[in-house]
Specification:
The structure is a homodimer. By secondary structure, the first copy, chain A, is mostly beta strands. Chain A has two domains: 130 residues, Porin, CATH 2.40.160; 137 residues, Beta Barrel (Porin), CATH 2.40.160.210. Chain A is built from five helices and 17 strands. Chain A is globular, with a radius of gyration of 18 Å. Chain A starts with a helix and ends in a 5-residue tail after the last strand. The relative contact order of chain A is 0.16. At the A-B interface, β5, β8, β9, β13 and β15 of A face β5, β8, β9, β13 and β15 of B. β15 of chain A pairs antiparallel with β9 of chain B, so a sheet runs across the interface.
Chain lengths: 294, 294
């Protein structure tokens, strides 16, 4: 089947041979409108659970189906995820509901649930989001934001060179082609900059092109910015909100993660994603818990 | 009644003579757990509806009651509001639900609803939030964020000097003591800076002290940053997420609103709020619709 550009960029009928599309696939349950079955693949593990960006993309795919049918509102324009408990590999369900339909935006909510040993549902992630059609987005672009300056990908540091101990806890890195700015990787050599900033080039290892759903993975795919502060360990996301500002063109993404305020046990982690045309395609902020001293 | 500091800062039993506390008051409906009645006061109008920050504070107050009883999780650590339709003065209801209770955080959701002429419910705002106890927050503060530089309040421009045409659309300004940095008000003289930044000093006109709930008003109280881009008109909020990072000390707040990317009909509007001790007490980002040319 030849895909039209719209199908391709919306990710709704994306190539089945992509690890990202398989990992975030949802199947609507027969006779249960709004209920989608999924399988969380261990290949997207990071630290103690499944990567939060992948989970958000998976819930977002279910909402794209649920809100987009008949409206064309297939793109997550603004999406907020509240992380409730650590997900584990295995079956999962997404329960999607429409909150309100409008002319240009439809708002919905979704619950990502897994079952415990007794079969009782345990909620992993609650999502609230407004969807629109970014292909229909018009209007001027007036931006003072500029893409980050960094060396070209072939002069950056591929995470395949990361310490084996780190890679062992980060299965998802094998599915990413992530090239970190050499200025952002002092922490790997025992010399964190203390600036709270990590940036690099990102694309999917299997060549799957970026689209709005993939951007939700991109905003949570880099190592925690706490590494650049010399704080290692697990920084569980409490909440992550992403704004998808445009559909990305094919090619590399540039991703900047930064934090300015670590206080009272929490830090914010901002991400900006730029596409190869130099357009700011996504902005996100998450609130995460500070790693406990080990 | 003499209030204890905890009651005072949590805003749960705040002074009844405060306009903010009256405007964001909620009364639990007898026999209907989780349902709170409220009255939207025309004094908090801005442009075509009730100020979005006041609505968020009102829903947040209901969730503080709903999630905080028995847990002490009274403070909105992270709160996301999706604005669905314009609120109007009159009766409103908040329907609050617990999503998940945890040791340090409780997560809940709330719907702010008004009735149309037929008595049918129309949802205005959907909220998803995680609450904790900021008084219990410990741990180091490592911040690279610095408060904005601006002249002292008595050398800033009080919004009571705003054009009468503007004040007529902004009832809420009478309830704020807002002093804008002279460098931020070129737009009022026909000379917007084009930088997309407005900053100033803020306190409540009636002397009510800042607390976490009041910070939710503070993040949406300044004029839209689009004014500083020379774009006037209504910029409806699609989504606003605020992180309350600490309980503010009594005194003035410094608030910075800024945007970097206006594109495809939307812009992000970031707010940072600093208390008088120089601590970053709240960060927020909203996605808003760009005003249409008039």
């Amino acid at each position: 089947m030849t895909m039209t550009p719209v199908e391709q960029v919306s990710g709704r009928d994306a190539a089945p041979d992509s690890e990202f599309d398989r990992g975030s696939a949802v199947v609507e349950r027969e006779g249960a409108p709004g209920v989608y079955d999924a399988e969380l693949d261990p290949g997207w593990r990071i630290g103690g659970g499944i990567n939060g960006g992948l989970l958000l993309a998976l819930a977002a795919r279910a909402l794209s189906r649920h809100l987009g049918d008949g409206t064309g509102h297939v793109d997550p324009v603004s999406i907020s995820g509240y992380y409730l408990s650590a997900s584990r590999p295995g079956p999962a369900e997404v329960h999607a509901e429409t909150v309100r339909g409008g002319r240009t935006l439809s708002t919905g909510t979704a619950r990502l649930v897994q079952r415990d040993e007794d079969g009782s549902p345990v909620e992993r992630l609650r999502v609230l989001a407004s969807y629109g059609d970014l292909a229909a987005a018009e209007g001027e672009v007036r931006t003072s934001a500029a893409p980050p300056l960094m060396p070209p990908p072939d002069q950056c540091i591929s995470t395949e060179h990361a310490p084996p101990q780190f890679l062992a806890q980060a299965d998802l890195l094998h599915r990413l082609d992530l090239r970190l700015d050499p200025a952002s990787v002092g922490w790997a050599l025992g010399e964190p900059s203390g600036e709270g900033r990590i940036q690099g080039w990102l694309r999917l290892a299997d060549g799957r092109l970026p689209d709005p759903l993939m951007l939700l993975l991109a905003v949570d795919a880099l190592p925690p910015v706490t590494f650049d502060l010399g704080l290692f360990g697990w920084t569980p996301t409490i909440e992550l909100t992403a704004h998808v500002r445009a559909r990305p063109v094919p090619g590399w993404l540039r991703v900047v993660h930064s934090t300015r305020n670590l206080a009272g046990g929490y830090l914010e982690e901002d991400a900006e994603v730029w596409d190869e045309s130099g357009r700011l395609v996504a902005q996100s902020r998450q609130l995460a818990a500070v790693p406990r001293p080990s």
